[in-house]
Design brief:
The chain starts with a helix and ends with a helix. It has 9 helices and 10 strands. The protein is of the alpha/beta class. Strands 3-4-1-2-6-5-7-8-9-10 form a 10-stranded mixed beta sheet, sandwiched between helices.
């Protein structure tokens, strides 16, 4: 059996748990409050959470229950209004500071429950923009939906509506009624391929549930469970005919591609640091479309050079695949890790704590390039 931490180390996104660097004893004297980089687009950003229940399918990890999801929607908003949005909820922040703690970062040294972002909770949607493209972001294995806050909020500041989803029972999820259930799918079997394929099918189904919820919002309905209605006018921003998906690492990247393969509503795809096979031996492809390719335009950031199936896959795609490199990047150079971890390392007195995993690329450059590439690609493909 492969443990959760081993899987995270292999995927790269949350491999923080594998770090064993020493930390000064005085580092925990004060709590450091990280803040996300400023937005680059012209619009303020609102953020809203929705609780979805898909009563058309049972939960694959808990078959006696319907599938429940928590999603966050970021969108262009009017100036003013709303409380400042935090990356993590207080409950999730407490978990990160305790049971879900990161080796190398002393407990109590980081204010995980107060990581700031430029977004405002439930701010009034800027409906004067009309209907906007919708981008669904899928995280990597065992990774919270908040792991791409820096990217999805910036995309919203440029005029997109972005949606992130937690894949319940793979990661801790806080529901409006206070539930914070233990993961049920956090151990990978010795033969990982059946497990990986099951997670990708689950994620694709989750993504389709979310896209259907966006259609309900766009038609003036409320797809949530009623605990907190969506901000008034949010549905008027959503264009269900212009859908893109993006994801990073084996879980999120392949999850985005699997969604595009199975759901015809998706019109464009972005992946990051993803291959089509698993482990050092890469004995077989995880996905079924490695020989047929994708119908939709695809941009891939940091393609693994050692994947034996990638060349044939890209040759079979309907559109030329746009490949982007991040010179000097490391395995954690995508999503929020690029800006968050260097800040934490400096704050606790160990600026080189995650240097090997983050590479030599300047964090501000990496963040800027990822934001620009993703926004440019979707603007062109979802016009």
């Amino acid at each position: 059996m492969t443990t959760r931490r081993a899987v995270l180390t292999a995927t790269g996104l949350a491999a923080l748990a594998a770090t064993t660097a020493a930390v000064p004893a005085s580092a925990a004297a004060a709590r450091f409050r990280p803040s996300a980089p400023p937005l680059s687009g012209p619009f303020p950003v609102g953020r809203a959470h929705l609780h979805l229940v898909d009563r058309t399918r049972r939960d694959p990890w808990l078959p006696g229950s319907y599938r429940e999801l928590m999603i966050s929607v970021c969108y262009p908003a009017r100036h003013g209004g709303g409380e400042p949005a935090r990356v993590f909820s207080p409950r999730f922040g407490d978990w990160l500071d305790g049971e879900g703690g990161i080796e190398g970062i002393p407990p109590g040294s980081v204010a995980w429950d107060d990581v700031g972002t430029p977004a405002r909770m439930n701010a009034t949607p800027l409906t004067a923009l009309g209907r906007r493209p919708v981008l669904l972001a899928t995280p990597g294995h065992f990774t919270t939906r908040d792991a791409w806050s820096c990217v999805v909020q910036d995309l919203a500041s440029r005029g997109f509506v972005t949606v992130t989803v937690d894949h319940t029972y793979e990661v801790r999820v806080e529901f409006p009624d206070g539930r914070f259930p233990d993961p049920l799918a956090d151990t990978m079997p010795a033969d990982p391929y059946p497990w990986l394929r099951k997670t990708l099918r689950c994620w694709s189904d989750d993504s389709s549930t979310v896209l259907t919820a966006m259609e309900v919002l766009a038609s003036g309905g409320d797809p949530g469970e009623g605990e907190a209605p969506p901000p008034r006018g949010l549905g008027r921003l959503i264009d269900p005919a212009r859908i893109g998906v993006l994801g990073a690492f084996t879980g999120g990247g392949l999850g985005a591609m699997e969604t595009a393969h199975r759901d015809e509503r998706v019109r464009a795809v972005v992946t990051g640091d993803v291959g089509l096979s698993w482990g050092e031996e890469r004995r077989e492809p995880i996905v079924s479309f490695h020989e047929t390719g994708l119908r939709q335009p695809l941009m891939a950031i940091r393609v693994p050079e050692e994947d034996p199936y990638w060349a044939a896959f890209t040759a079979a795609c309907d559109h030329p695949v746009r490949e982007r490199a991040l010179p000097g990047a490391g395995v954690w150079s995508l999503a929020d890790l690029q800006w968050l971890l260097p800040d934490i390392g400096r704050a606790i007195g160990n600026p080189g704590l995650f240097a090997e995993q983050l590479g030599t690329i300047e964090p501000r450059v990496s963040v800027r390039l990822q934001r620009e590439w993703i926004a440019e690609f979707f603007a062109r493909r979802l016009h």
